[in-house]
User: What shape does this take?
Amino acid sequence: MEQANKAFVSRGVERLVTGVPTSDGAGVKLTRVLTQQLQQRLDPFLMLDAFGTDQREDYIGGFPDHPHRGFETVTYMIAGRMRHRDSAGNEGLLENGGVQWMTAGRGVVHSELPEQEDGRMEGFQLWLNLPARDKMRAPWYRDLKAAELPRVHSAGGVEAVVIAGASQGVQGAVQRDTTEPLYLDIVLPPGQRFSQPLEAGHNAFVYVYRGSVSVQGSKVASRQMAILDNDPLAQGVEIVAGTEEEARLLLIAGKPLREPIAQYGPFVMNTREELLQAVEDFQAGKFGAPVAQ
Ligand code: FE2
Assistant: This one.
């Protein structure tokens, strides 16, 4: 095994979180890992859902037409195929290893529907907040195929997909000025380690979805989220895989906005008045409607 980097001080685990089983859309079963109670602590992130099933009835209903305003959704598909259509005229197929990054801004209506009758469906949806000044900006959308996502490879078979931010000098697929998100999907063979510098003051967490890891001596099991502490002396985080099996995990970090968060379902604004306006605008048809299917 490689020697630990003695000069590197890692953040530790402040708290382990086990997600809450729930369902959303038309009966899609999922685990809400980052819940509303953690929005302040993990600012600028508002939600993380994990879904993973071989049972068609757990996903076949998909997410029919629904609106969003005031934030960004980042969907990362590990396995399966989902078709996306929205009121801004965008359409895309999200599949095996691909990412869809959507900035709802002032409002979109979209549908996310499975394009498979059986087989495995697995992935994640992260909600990233927008600063007050950008909440009413025009919607933006990008589909990134697995082959378009930058990757870093290091000794021992360690690999990371750089969805946002940067790692080991490799710029990720998406950059954001205000929230400075880092979004990595990391594969660690048994016993291997991965270090990532993190900005002091940025909030960060890890979600393990295969195998197990340890961070500063604390074990993080499969399907657990570890909220990393904000130790001002730490330069980042060092993650070590368990010795028995390969580990796969998400490492997500960002710069907190420190603005009031007002949420009503799929609308996330700063005040109650803005939420009421969102509902009114949606009901008045101001978000438009997705292309007929
Ligand atoms: Fe959605």
